[in-house]
Amino acid sequence: MKKLKNGWVQGSAQEFLELSDADMAYIETKRALAACLREQRVKRHLTQTELATRLETSQSRVAKMESGDRTVSIDLLLQSLYRIGTKRRQLFALL
Amino acid sequence: MKKLKNGWVQGSAQEFLELSDADMAYIETKRALAACLREQRVKRHLTQTELATRLETSQSRVAKMESGDRTVSIDLLLQSLYRIGTKRRQLFALL
DNA sequence: TGACGTTATACCAGTTCTGACATATCTTCC
DNA sequence: GGAAGATATGTCAGAACTGGTATAACGTCA
Q1: Average pLDDT, chain A
Q2: Cα B74 to Cα A5, A16, A28, B63, B78, distances in angstroms
């Protein structure tokens, strides 16, 4: 992290938050799965509420899933994707 | 599930346990990641105890991870794989 | 502007997962 | 058989996740 004369510092978010490569990989995986879920939903012209009904959960949780919220696990994302018919070979590239 | 004259029935484990395709996909994903973890460990000539130390966890949890135990999440498996240097690209070779 | 449909955020009780420890079951030697 | 190293299984308190509910914020159209 490089210090500049004006008092600010220069560096990546990864450096600032002191995230390891493993942390980054995990976060990026989650982000990709979350994006995939939204993509699938939009492609089917469903609202979060409608998708929530099919997944037997709530709209708020769908919103959190799609935003890769801290309180959402990759397990939940994967299971949700599988339940709406996503195939494994479509996903492993995202892992 | 087909019933036989001798009283037994014929059918897959999936049918017997009434698992959905989504359940199956999830279980299979977990199994693949678990196998990958073991493979990586063995390739490096590490014992479960040694790997546990590197992952800052216990030997018993490593054993559970490698066996795809019910009490182990895909999150834990993925994070563990990333922490020992597995790249995301390597994971889609699992299919 | 306000009503309405959609998405985002906050909170919490119940469930599940995690790490740690103890113990049991292999495996491979002698 | 018995010892020693490795792996598997059981249990449990504390942490993290999940679903539900409430509510806030956003977008759009009359």
Answers
A1: 87
A2: 45, 27, 15, 15, 6
